[in-house]
Amino acid sequence: MALTLGGRQEARPPDVTKRNRKQRFGRQQLWIWLLLTPTVLLYGAYTVYPIIASYWYSFVEWNGFEAEKTWVGVQNYKDVLADDLFWNSFKITILFMLVVVPLKVILTLLLALLLNSPKLPFSTFFRTVYFLPVVTTAAIIGVVMQFVFDPASGPINQLLVTLGLSDGGINFLGDSSTALWTAAGIYVWKWFGITMIYWLAALQTIPDEVYEAARIDGAGAWHLLRRITIPLLKPFMIIITLLSFEAALKVFDLMLTLTNGGPYYATEVVEIYIYRWAFSATIPQLGYASAAAVIFGLFVCIVGLFQLYGVRAVQKARAAQ
After folding, report:
1. CATH H superfamily, domain 76-320
2. Which of 114, 144, 160, 241 is spaced 20 to 30 Å from 166 by Cα?
3. Are 53 and 274 in contact (CB under 8 A)?
């Protein structure tokens, strides 16, 4: 900048300009931190502190009501790892994840391919319809589905009886042989829309010119899908699949309202197991529940590392193209 004195322009001293820049930068930083303060405080109180406290509680025996806490070291971890019900809940969590992720990823890809077609009428309407369950609270979905699958008066059972496919009501959520699969189907329907949007966004990255050039060369719909669409979607497929795996581990609200882990622990995922020991037990065991939560948290971190590895692999593949 320059100063005008008596018709002459004199350059501002460098130290003055530098000082003004520092002051302006300092004011900007002050405003940034002032605006971030509520978020930082809330995040620290409701996310960072509970995580740190869980690690501390996992080494003590505490029911959550008394002020006294008894140090037990790693005994809580030993008890959790020796509990067959914990491993049962872990197995159910893995099984649930392995069932819902392929279903959700494959079915949403097929639907996205259909909805991405410019020849399909009312495609915007169908996209909205499939996305509506996503914006509905999972707990509300669980409560509503209890009525939908009610063995006595639920519309699903009434339809089956009307079609002659069932002589009486089927207790989909109350039978240990069907409860988990019913919950898996509801989960896929609930989160179907968000994965579909991921695929639609990925399909938009493929230039139309590539398809037009292939059609000129005589390629049909199957060859377009096999030779162009699927290869170009592979990087997105890795990311969407990893995101789906991580999301499938967070089913507490839906499973709690659907089955509460029953019947006979048939749908008790690890999150329900932790909740049962921390809040539903006759005598709450927060230390024991915290140990189970820490173990499960480490497993989630491992899944997150695979996700990070997948994202980096995708970035390297795209950079090499």
Report:
1. MetI-like (1.10.3720.10)
2. 144
3. no
Q: Which tokens hold the place of 47?
A: 């996310």
**For the residues 151-172, what does the mean pLDDT come to?**
85
CA distance readout (Å), 93 to 34, 110, 192, 250, 251: 42, 26, 19, 10, 9
Write down the residue that tokens 């996503």 correspond to: 134
Say which residue the tokens 């029953």 belong to: 262
Of 214, 217, 194, 224, the closest CA to residue 117 belongs to 224
The C-alpha atoms of residue 115 and residue 248 are separated, in whole angstroms, by 25
Query: Angle of helix 84-115 relative to helix 192-203, nearest 10 degrees?
Result: 50
Secondary structure (3-state) at 197: helix
Q: How many CA atoms lie within 13 A of 157 on its CB side?
A: 17
Angle at CA 255, nearest 5°, toward 251 and 261?
Answer: 125
Does the pLDDT of residue 6 top 80, yes or no?
no
The tens digit of pLDDT for each residue in 209-268 reads 888 888 887 878 888 888 888 888 888 888 898 889 889 988 999 999 999 998 989 999
**Separation of alpha carbons 61 and 225, rounded Å:** 58
SS3 content of the chain, % helix, strand, coil (to 5): 70, 5, 25
Give buried/exposed letters for 8-47 (b at 16+ CB in 10 A, else e).
Answer: eeeeeeeeeeeeeeeeeeeeeeeeeeeeeeeeeeeeeeee
**pLDDT reported for residue 280:** 85
Q: Tokens 């008596």 sit at which residue?
A: 6
CA distance 209 to 188: 34
The two most distant CA atoms of the chain are separated, in Å, by 102
Closest CA to 291 of 76, 93, 82: 76
What are the C-alpha distances in Å from 159 to residues 93, 143, 181?
31, 20, 19
